[in-house]
Amino acid sequence: MNKTALTKTYTKDIQNSCLNSKKIVLSLATISFLASCTHATLTPEIKTYEETNRHAKARSGLQSRNSNNETINNLQTSTKTISGTGNTLVIESSGTITISNDGQQAVNFQPNSSTSTFLNKGTLIGGNNTASVQLGAANGNNGVSIETFNNQGIIGNGSSKFGVTVFLGGGSKDNPKSIINNFSNSGTIHSNTGESIYFGNAKISSFVNSGTIKSKQGAGVNISQGTSIENFNNTGTGIIEGKRMGVNVRSTINTFVNDGLIAATNDGIQINANVKTLINKGTIKGDAISIRSLGGTIETLTNEGIMDGKSAGIYMNRSLVKTLTNSGTINQNNSATWSAGIKLENGSIIENIINTGSIRSNAFGISVTGGKFGTLTIKDGGMVYGKYSAIGVGRSQTLGDLYIDGRSNNGTVSGIYSEEHGILLENNSRTQKIELKNGGIIKGNIDGIRLINSASLSGEMILSGEGSRVEGGRGVGILNRSGKIEGSIKVEDGATVTATSNRAIANSGSGSITGGITVSGKNTKLEGNIINTGNASIGSDIKIEDGAKVEGGLVNQDNGSISGSVQVSGGSSIDSITNEGNGAISGSITVDKDSKLDSITNTSTSSTGISGSITNNSDNKLEISNSGNIGGKIESTGSADMVISNSNGGTISGGISSSGSGSTSISNSQGSTINNGITVSGSAQVEISNQGSVGKDENGNTVTNNGSGSVGIKDWLVSTDKNTGKLNTVVIGGSRAFNVKVENITVDQSNVDLEELNDINNIISGVNQNNIGNIGTNGSGEISLSFDPITGKLTTDFNLNASISGATFRSLISTTSRRSTFIDNVMGNSMQSFALASSSKSQSIAMSEKGNLYADASDYIKSDLNNGSYGSNKEHSLFILPYTSSQNVELSLNEESKGHTKGTIIGYSTLKDSGIYGVYAGYEDTKMGSTYFDINNRTYYAGLKYFNTLFTTEKGQEVYIKAQGKAALIKNDLTEKIGNNEAKAEPNSYAYGVNTALGMNFISNKDIFSPEIGLAYEGGYTEAFSMKDTIGQATVKGGERTYANYLNLFSTKTSLTWFRDWLPNLKTSVELGAKFNINPKVEAEARFGNIKVSDEFDLPRVQKFVSTSFIVPVNEAFYFSLSYNGMFDKDGNTHTGFAQFNYLW
């Protein structure tokens, strides 16, 4: 604050000595001055004594007497002025000085005066615009000297603007500052708009307040520039209250101790200067901030009491605290999101924080948004709580070392707690070390520890000791999201990292952990997964050791990389290791004796995958699932069982070795690879299932058995060289090769040279042939192998019924039969619509065509008997019908394949005297699929249909005849599938046929029963075709060709239809029947390589069918029906449902 000399009214004592008994007359001259000044401020919030006087005019009438020692015990109304030296002033409890003049003080100590004792037990009340007690003058001249300033009474009653003001002296040799050795208050010092106590350019040895210092509008105590206080003590009964500030420190204090209460509407204490030691044992309270430091320096700040601020407990701006020790309580309790218990801004520094007490905030417990912390130690039951984070380090700020020691003598565990993040290191922030030990807690309901966006930890993160816990909630226990941990994360000696989300440690984004992760020690646990995801990297080993547990897995995913190895040792355990996405683990995976790893899953698409070996030395079962790349070998050396599954194109480059005593199960799926063979040298039982590729070891063996256990090949697919067609022979070697048993061996017939199938040693060698079980191929069964271990002879057979030829014929016949029955139903519905015509012939027709009648049957009968007419004559019927059909057909032998058909049919019928004639045409798409075949085709079909009544019996039964001719063009799209290989062909088929049937209608009231028998011929021709490889090589070497095929089938049919006339606008019909194939055998010829094959196979002898219809006559021109048609035989079934509209005219 800039100070300007303020001209004050003063009196000059004129003293005359009297050496005799003559009366001495004291003459007092009073001179008035007009003072003017410029305006200055202490802070934007505080108006000081000087500022007030610089804006006002004052007159002062002072009266002085030549008296060095004076006691006042009565009421006075004029200023008591102290000047000269050697003064003593005592105001007794009965003494009162009350000033009514606004600008005059109750007591005024003049510049250059010295007083040994000032004791007030009474009441001193100055004017409304000045202080009650003033020391010195505001003009910068010499100060005053007081040995003891002791207030036990009342100074000010809230009406005086200031309580006590000590004005600035010059501070030089010629103009010394004011000096007070002992300033004590056990009474009340009360001001109105200004400070209760103002120290300006003064030197105070001891300040002790045990009473009340209170300002209505200003500061309780304002220690202005140039002042120094050796010891400032607010005792247990002391109260210092202000509106703006309780205590405003703008000059040096050596020791500041508060045992009482310091409070203000804004800041309890504001510091703009140096305080060597500040100790709070009482309460410091600010409705804004309890202690605010603006450019101040505090060497030692100790809180043993309560610091309570709504916006902050301790707030620092451009300030320094060398050591902050809190064993009391620091509270922040409003809802502002920027607030904190302790907050640093604008380059502020706290070199050392020791918290053994409580720091609580509704926002951030300890926060640095501009500056840095040196060392932060939480111990002896210390606690930090923040709603958003307990410890928050803002963008580009610094936290040095953080130590949390849970050990405590009072049973309270040290820890930090948050509704969101326990420790939050934001963008580009820095910290050196985080250590949690001896049962300490770090807890956040989202994350326990959170580093984000280039936040860095340059040293170690060490979590140790029984009961020590880092707890996350829905987030992560320890989250490093695009941060940088240059050291390692160590969880040891009984510590726990946990999260309710089951994510214990997550390294994500571009995060890096250079020093790796170590989890060690008995009772040490990670309750959840270790996750390395995004583009994150772990630059060293991950170790689970010395009895530690990871109750979750290690998950490396996306583009995550782990440069070191993964080691599970010393009786430790981890549930699983998963490497997926494009993740890479550059080192090996080792599980030592007595340790446990349940499973390893590698589905990574990275070329690295797991580049090291996987070794299981433990006694606990290990399951390994790989669909990526494992660069080393998989080895089992312990007594544990091991299950290895290599699938979906996975590669195990180093082979598999089983040298322990535990059982090993190996499954290598289609498209997957195991290089360098499989070696067995222990006492284990080994079971192998291979549908992929297994390479040979350095001795040329596919499987080497040197062990004393048993080795069984449950199933093995022998692959074929794609260039030569030669088989990749399974070579069994080792000292106990004879002990290997082969349950099933399958030859991959893709591009196989059929000559290879003449010798068993081309398929498997080195094994006792008596130990060979079944031998087959991986096709649909068209090529079959049989082996006689006695003679060693291997024979090859061909079965066209199981080939693409058989599948094509079964599909063709199934769809043709389904279509014939469907067309019968649809055309019958169209032709029977003439039932509403006048002739009895048309009525008879209507009753015969599957009973799907559109008129009332009783009306028919009456009309027929009376030769009446039901309605207008109709001669033409037309319909267009889209339809969908679902069907199950046996394409591959013993495999029922599901498919569907979509089509559209258009039909026309006309009524003539000679009968009803119908014509139709349509097309349909059919798609059928199975394991080995896909049969897709598009059919274009057309046909003619005829109906007529032959005669009517005496009892009214009608005998009718039906006939139909049809033809179809079928464009086939055939696919043969062998493993991952495919071959295709697109031959045309042609279908044609005729059928006729006789039937009779039996009429009973509203029911009509119509039995029917028929005879049919169906012919077909399919062009010769060769299968062309489209994906890989599905055909045998030399190709596969099916020759042209002719189909000539005769069949009979019998059926019974029941028609029911329920209401004039509701009719139903149900037809049950069966079709009997007279000659169900079909002959076929084909070629495999250079081998021609002919065969015949059986079609279903019996086909059963059912048709149902619900008929609704809309009017004379439109008729609507809902129909279902189903067909069933031993090779499958077909279901067709459709809705049909007929238009008549």
UniProtKB/TrEMBL annotation:
All residue ranges annotated as the Autotransporter domain in the record: 871-1145
Q: Which PROSITE patterns match?
A: AUTOTRANSPORTER
User: Which residues lie within the region annotated Disordered?
Assistant: 51-70, 600-622
Source species? Campylobacter jejuni
Against SMART domains, the record matches this protein to: Autotransporter
Composition bias (Low complexity) maps to 600-618
Q: Which domain of life is it from?
A: Bacteria
Q: Report biased composition (Polar residues) as residue ranges.
A: 61-70
Q: Which InterPro entries match?
A: Autotransporte_beta, Autotransporte_beta_dom_sf
- The name this protein carries in UniProt is Autotransporter outer membrane beta-barrel domain-containing protein
